[in-house]
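Sanity check record (used in CI):
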Amino acid sequence: MLKKNTPPAAGPRILTLRVLRSSPSEATEPHWQDFRVEEAEGMTLFIALNEVRENLDPSLQFDFVCRAGICGSCGMLIDGKPGLACCALTRDYGPEITLAPLPVFELIGDLSVNTGKWMRGTAERLETWIHSDAEPLLTALEPRMEPELAEAIYELDRCIECGCCVAGCGTLRMREEFVGAIGLNKIARFRLDPRDERSDEDFYELIGDDTGVFGCMSLLGCHDVCPKGLPLQTQIAFLRRKMAVVGLK
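Expected output for Fumarate reductase iron-sulfur subunit:
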C-alpha cells in the first residue's frame, strides 16, 4: 500500500518587529528599526520585546511591571492601535508588527512614555479624591454600601491608567486641555460614591465646558481601545446629560 506524501510540518514564524526609535535625552532623530524574532507558542509582544532587549539590542526602551494587564505600563501603538504589549498575542498579528510610543504623553525613549505625569496632572485638576467635611475617624467602621452600588463603583475603578484611551482620543488632538475619557470616568466614579459630598454643581465647575464633557466629539476611540472594556461610552453620555441639566438652570 502506497503511503501518501505528507508535507513537512511548518516551522515557527519569524516575526519582524518594526519599532519607532527615538531618544529625546540624546537628541536622537526618530527612525524605524527592524528586529527579527522567532515566534513561540503563546508569545506576547511583551515576550517578543524582551527577546529583542536580551538578545539583540539591550538599549531598546519599553515599560513593564506586572505582565498581566493590570499595571498598564506597557501601553503602545500596535499596528497603529493603542494596546497593551503584555496582552497582545503575536499569533493575532501578521509576520510584520509595527510598534510606536503612545502619542499625547511625554516621550522618554523608544516605546517608553511618561503617562504618570499626565495622569497626576489630570487627577489634581479634577480633584479625583473623596471630598467630605466630616473629620476622619480611623477607628470607625466603614459605612455600609449596597452591593449594587459598590459593584458600579468598582466597575469604574478598574481603570489601570494605561493611557490607551488618551492615545485613541481624536478630541485630544485638537484640544490639548481636554480631560479625556479617563478624566470623565473618574468624575463618574466619584459622583456615584455616597462618601463624596460634592454636588452636580461642583462637578460642573470641573467638567462643564469644552475641556470637559461638552468638548467630547463622541468619536468613541476611547471606548474601542480600552483594554479593560470599561463602559466609557455610557459614562460620557450619562455625565453629559447630568451636566446639561446643571448648565440650563
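The beta strands are 14-23, 28-38, 75-78, 81-84, 96-100, 106-109, 112-114. If this sentence no longer matches the regenerated C-alpha cells, the check is flagged for review.
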